[in-house]
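Lecture 7 notes: from sequence to structure.

We start with a single chain of 323 residues. Read the sequence below before looking at the structure.
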Amino acid sequence: MRISHDPPLPWLAERELEKSAEIDRYEAELGYPSYDPHPETEPDHPERRFRRTRLAGIISAITLLVVALVACVLALAPRWWTPDESAFIRGHEGAYVYEHVTLNNISRYMIAAAISHEDIAFLTRTEAFEWGKYVGTAESYLGGDHDIAGGSTIPQQLVKNLYLTPSTTPIRKAVEALIATPTAVTLSKPRMMELYLNYAQFGQDIFGICAASWYYFGEAPWDMSLPDAAQLASILPLPSEARRVDTPTGGVYVLGPKSSERFHTDLARVTNDVKYLGSDTMMKDIGIKDDASAHAGERSTTASCSTMPEGVRDLLRENGYGF
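Now the structure, written as tokens:
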């Protein structure tokens, strides 16, 4: 259609439209293509759609393969590699106390108490978690319940501490599950417990069982009794609220009435569970066949935490404990 760019006078508007209509009819009779200000897009050819679909499939497959390989590498690495610090420790604001200790120098009571408190199914479960419970928790979160406490297994918590952040977003939880699944297969249960107890937070500025045993009780981690171990296990969900009892022999208490009630409830449950199941039986279930006392001769040459770390001594002085 040919339309003048100059606005017509009012009395010429009708005539201008008539002329445009005549020209359109004339061009149509001659077979001229009509002007379409919004031409339709070219129809999508089936072969073109197939190529696009195939390319998207290849890209998705490559992406999944890369993600799976990364997850397997992260799961396998701790079999031989012991990080100097975890992602949680690196993200801690301010000074902190941490010192690594080998599994041979950790009280079996402490291992049993941690399992009892955090993941009793760890004794018999072969996977990272139970899919039914995991899916149920995910559905609750997506349904609006963002105040879900607990539920993470020891493999999940280990992966979270080693590589991830404290957030509980669905994406972070999905990544956690993706890495925890091969971790439960590639790492032995004793190795998982060694790493877990070394990177767990036991106080505002205290990471790992080595620093925790010396700070709260003034004793090496291989010398802990069941009552002491149960107290430390019971502050795992409340590390920022845990405090040392102000006596030479030490002990643990937590701030706030609700936290204190939870602490004492957990303490009684953990103590009873370990007594009922038997720490020796629990250790055999996860593949630990001897007591920490069997490795006393190694303590001069290994990471035994046999003396109080200097950072713990400084923290005690800083908090006003002058023993």
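The chain has one domain: 84-318. Keep this in mind for problem set 3.
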